[in-house]
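Design job #97: recover the sequence.
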């Protein structure tokens, strides 16, 4: 059995990309993303979370908690969206492209 984990994101459609996220879980508090592993397998820090709300991604499909975040390396602290999609396995993170 291999100890190697494939961290590459996989696309579901042209706009939806599932990604690996390191997150903080605390009792009574929302899950907080700390790091995202981007498409080049580089760990990038989530600098801040400015909003969390239930929402659907009309562009990519899917719904869950939508996080408005600023990610390290984005130009001029541009806010972007990432979703924690509810599933039978507990939840998968995705971002939208394009």
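Job complete. Output follows.
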């Amino acid at each position: 059995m291999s100890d190697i984990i494939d961290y590459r994101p996989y696309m579901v459609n042209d706009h939806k990309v599932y990604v690996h996220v390191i997150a903080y879980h605390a009792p009574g508090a929302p899950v907080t993303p700390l790091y995202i592993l981007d498409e080049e397998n580089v760990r990038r820090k989530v600098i801040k979370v400015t909003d969390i709300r239930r929402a659907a991604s009309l562009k990519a499909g899917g719904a869950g908690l939508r996080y408005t975040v600023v990610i390290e390396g984005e130009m001029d602290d541009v806010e972007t969206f990432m979703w924690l999609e509810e599933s039978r396995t507990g939840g998968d993170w995705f971002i939208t492209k394009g």
